[in-house]
Amino acid sequence: MMKQLTKWLALLTVLLMIGNTQAADAVLGAGDILKISVYGNPDLATETRVSDAGTITFPLLGPVEIGGLTAIGAEKKLGGLLETGGFLRKAQVNILITQIQNQQISVLGQVNRPGRYPIEGRRSILDMLAMAGGIAADGGDTVSLIRKRNGATTKDVVDIIGMVRTGELEKDFELAANDVLYVERAPRFYIYGEVQRPGPVRLERAMTVLQALSAGGGLTPRGTERGMVIKRRDINGKQQVLDAKQDDLVQPDDVVYVKESLF
User: Which H or E element spans position 128?
Assistant: First the structure.
């Protein structure tokens, strides 16, 4: 029993050391809450929040800019200022990050709870979508991931539904601070004429004209499946009028027109 307890205590110590190392490596920024202590000087202990300008207010020193520094870097800066200012001969400063606010990811667009979410450990695209309540009813199947690395901004479009259906999670990318996830509105087409429910309709994958007719509520008593047409714009924006067969695939922004029967 004692051996097992010792084993668990050792494991807990390692986990705490890992957590402290990750916190020490974190870059400080606006909204972070810090507990700062100075060895042998309890009067200098303070809890403070990093301002939007990246500064904190510290006893004896006043405003100090620490935004963009790691916790270790901020400790060295505060210690150096206390020594060069003549307040202490040797300053041993310790910073504990109690709440990291600048390490956040934005989840926007058609999700149930859009907003900014903190990174707690390793987080992937699917993790953050789950935290945002999942894709909303009007959301599409793809998610845009916008990232900035080394001064360059990149955009990846990830097919969430396809990835989950196949179980191939190579594109379930691990996220970092200030990444942006954006869920587009699902593509639509329009159906009008002799159908029960004319108007805009969500376009499902590989949707045929016959399925589009069903999504529109089916034919009215005067409607006919013969002579249906699709109005579609080409790459130059010019409208085309195409004869529609039942098995033709509908494309985003198509307009499906159902004619009236002549008999």
Answer: helix 125-131
Q: Compute the distance between CA of residue 79 and CA of residue 188 in angstroms, rounded to an integer.
A: 60
What are the pLDDT digits (tens) for 166-211? 988 999 999 988 899 999 999 999 999 999 999 999 999 899 999 9
2-99 maps to which CATH number? Answer: 3.30.1950.10
Q: Which superfamily does 188-258 belong to?
A: Outer membrane lipoprotein wza domain like (3.10.560.10)
Query: Distance between CA atoms of 100 and 71, rounded to whole angstroms?
Result: 11
For 104-139, b where at least 16 C-beta lie within 10 A, e where not — what string? bbbbebbbeebeebebeeebebbbbbebbeebbeeb
* Whole-angstrom distance, CA of residue 116 vs CA of residue 211: 38
With CA atoms as reference, report the closest residue to 108 among 206, 168, 182.
182
How far apart CA 169 and CA 151 sit, in angstroms, is: 27
Topology of domain 104-185 in CATH is Outer membrane lipoprotein wza fold like (3.10.560)
The label of the residue with tokens 């494991």 reads: 11
Rounded CA separation 185/130 (Å):
18
